[in-house]
What we know:
By secondary structure, this protein is α+β, with helices and mostly antiparallel strands. It folds into two domains: 1-183, no CATH class; 187-342, Histidine kinase-like ATPase, C-terminal domain (Heat Shock Protein 90, 2-Layer Sandwich). It contains ten helices and seven strands. Strands 2-4-5-7-6 form a five-stranded mixed β-sheet. The chain has a two-stranded antiparallel ribbon with strand order 1-3. Strand 6 (309-314) and strand 7 (318-324) form a beta hairpin. The longest helix is centred in the middle third of the chain and has 50 residues, at 100-149. The chain is elongated and about 115 Å long.
Amino acid sequence: MDSSVKAVPARVGAFRKRIAWVFGLQFLTVLIICILGAYNVVPTVAVVAVIVVITIVAWFTTRREWRPVRALARLVNRWDAQQLDPETLKLDELSHHADADVASLARGLHGFATRIAGYNQRERNFTRDASHELRSPLTVIKMSVDMLAEEEGLSDFGTRSVRRIKRATREMEVLVEALLILARETDTATEKEYFVVNDVLRQELESARELLAGRPIELLLQEPARFALKGSPQAFSVLCWQLIRNACQQTEQGSVVISVLPGVVSVRNQANPQVSDDALRPVRVHGVDRHGFELAIAQRISDRFGWPLELQTQPGHENIARLCFPHTLPVDAELAEKDQQR
Length: 342
């Protein structure tokens, strides 16, 4: 912080005192001139002229006292929050005669700009490091698991282990994508893409079916409607994956139904509370876990992109997660837009 702002604390309230003196003298002068005019000591024209002059002088004096505040407002208006150096605020441009209140605002602004700059730097470092340092080993693990799965003579235990590693790798990959989405700043170019909701859901279901191989859970897709969105297909994919994964964890046996309705995507799990053949015990049925990690990530993404998420538990061991989309687009909107541009 510049020395001029640091040296002002002794002048606390000086602005208010000077303004009080200006208006006090103005009132006293007007009162005296009005009394003199009332007793015909001074002509009426002179009274009006003196009042006008005093008002103009008071206005210029007040304007001069307001200059430090205007200078601070101009500095804030020129400030770019993306700048990593808080010194770009140029707070040293403030007048050396700035009031202590203005200096306090400047110090607070400087501290706030420093924190914002540090946050921006940490965001860039995290997104850069996470994109490279986490994705690279995950790619190696995926390739190694695929090669191991093609080995001949792999035992049943080895096959199950490979399947678990593949599932954990996919979950870790989606988690990294979710953290990167939440860490990046909004209004980027990737968050304004046109995509069809049904197509993204089909891709997620294909990936989920591979990871659910061997488990008595059936994934179903119902498409009474088709619609598109303008946003981040990656964020929508991660959001749906978290809901599907959470629904699969709600029960050990049953079905997970994903329905595409007009402006709504619902994920519901229907547990089959019958006795399993191998364990001879009832299948566990869970209610909606509103504090699960999957739903916590899903809730943050839905809040980030303005896609409200509703959770319900209905009779018959059925849990429903419903995504609402206030601004939907027709499936052929992108083609129509391209035709208009042509």
